[in-house]
Amino acid sequence: MPDSDDLAALMDGFHLDNNAPTAYESNEKLIIALDFGTTFSGIAYCFANQRDTKVVAIVEWPGAEGESAPKIPTLINYSDAGGGEFAWGASVNRLQDNIVGVKLLLDPKQERPLYLPTANAKRAIKSLPKPPVEIAADFIGAVYRHALSEISKVVPHDYFKICQKHFVLSVPAVWSDGAKNATLQAAKIAGIFPVTLIKEPEAAALYTMHSLDFSLNVGDAFVVCDAGGGTVDLISYEVVGLSPTLQVKELVPGTGGMAGSLGLNQRFAEAVKNLVGDDQFADLRKSKGFFLAEKSFDREIKRAFKGDQDEEYFVNFPMAYLDDDPELGLEANCWRMTGTDLKAIFAPLITDILRLIDDQVKSVKIKRPGSDVTGIFLVGGFGSSQYLKACVKREHPDIQVLQPTDAWAAIVKGAALSKLPKQATVVATSAPKHYGVQAFKIYDPILDKDVPSQIRRDGSKRALSVRYPFMTWFINMGEDIQRNQEIKFSFFRSIDENYSPNDLIFNDTLYECADQHAPRHQSKGNKIGPNCKLTSDLRSVSSNLFEKRTDIDGDSYYDVTYNLVVTLKSALMTFSLEMDGVSMGSVQAKFS
């Protein structure tokens, strides 16, 4: 690996100062994509200007002891309580008390299924040496820096130096906008610039269409199921164009949940606990014997299982001194696992994934009555499971179920491909939720029967003639939104004639709702909640653009009318301000 001075020279375009982006003198582009996973992470890269561009994965990692590995464990361990020096990836001692699954802590509000052990996210975050976003930044920065040093070894030094470096990070589609923004902030804290986000199923779809040798026709529809370590993400697409490049659009909003293969590891640990008993398990869990057994299950057994009840696998617990129990298959510190044992471990996660796939298939058929689903793509680490594929085929015998040969790499390679010209492109998104703002309107006794009772007189059913905050929805769930389409939210403020600069800083809340039908107002029965706080700064705007008015007392004031412009990118909304059709001022979004 290059020393610090050499690496600094190589990282031209990898900015440690985000306030000073570099002006490039070359059109040569290097695209570097990171699949920041819950359990494993990987890097892929490509040079955009090559005639036959190939996406290459990084396979050499610190601590891997010469073993080529397409992915490394998403682990980090700090040498001090202050969160300073750290080991990461394959260089971490797996027997230490490492930080595992920090990616999930970026979205702690994700609902956990009942079959997984209960996790106290707040307690886990408090036990960390620094906030999750900063830990993620340490890991992401270390991985990207290593990638740059590895890529520099395979191309001429001068060429590498002049290349523009474009960084891509994949995120689960089902994550909240706040969690996606936290991932983006982690990259920025790490000093990575410029960086874009892409939804994991979208990246997987791009790679699958690029790699699988079959023809697609306009009107074909397919479901992408990205089953990874922590989450399972699904989005459905329709082919809308074939020339000059393949073009697809999202059909229905993405769905998913925490049914990733990390759950299999957790359920394996629970199965071992039930096998040996609480007392023996307390000591076993701390031993190297359990670590080796868990490693064998994770890397060999769960990947090899095909669903046959007659299959047998042997799990060893070296030097564990466990009591024999031949009836349960435990003898001489070795557990003979049967296909029945494994099916019990897989069962709730498989059931969850099949339900998610079935929901997508049904939603697609509702969106396109009379049309079939052409295929189901299984990608991701768990998506490469032959048992999962067999279960999906059994549930959907009339739909072709496809797995790329390197399903584990579909996301990271697709993320790299997403930045190449002349590749398949996603031209439209299906809005995952309703988005809007609150506005005061007159109460309607017919439409608003469930408005909170405090606006009613003396507890009677007769409503006061008052103004009440109702929702104005600008984006509706399932709405087809063209990629980079601008959606304008209109806002209005009145300010004094002798206003101060701070009077031109306006705060608003963007709301979201996951209900099927957008409600008119907030109540206990609906799923309306804040998406982010928006701070609009119009201090740089000339007062000539404000409308001067006079009130009934003869006092002058200004009406300020502006548009908040929302653009739905691949993975995250972006915001800007507009007045009279011209971009001006600035807006900042703060996610909760």
Automatic annotation (TrEMBL):
InterPro entries associated with the record: ATPase_NBD, Hsp_70_fam
UniProt key word Manganese: no
Organism placement in taxonomy: Eukaryota, Fungi, Dikarya, Ascomycota, Pezizomycotina
A Pfam family recorded for this sequence: HSP70
Keyword entries, A-Z: ATP-binding, Nucleotide-binding
Keyword Manganese assigned: no
Protein source organism: Staphylotrichum tortipilum
GO molecular function (one): ATP binding
Protein's name in the database: Uncharacterized protein
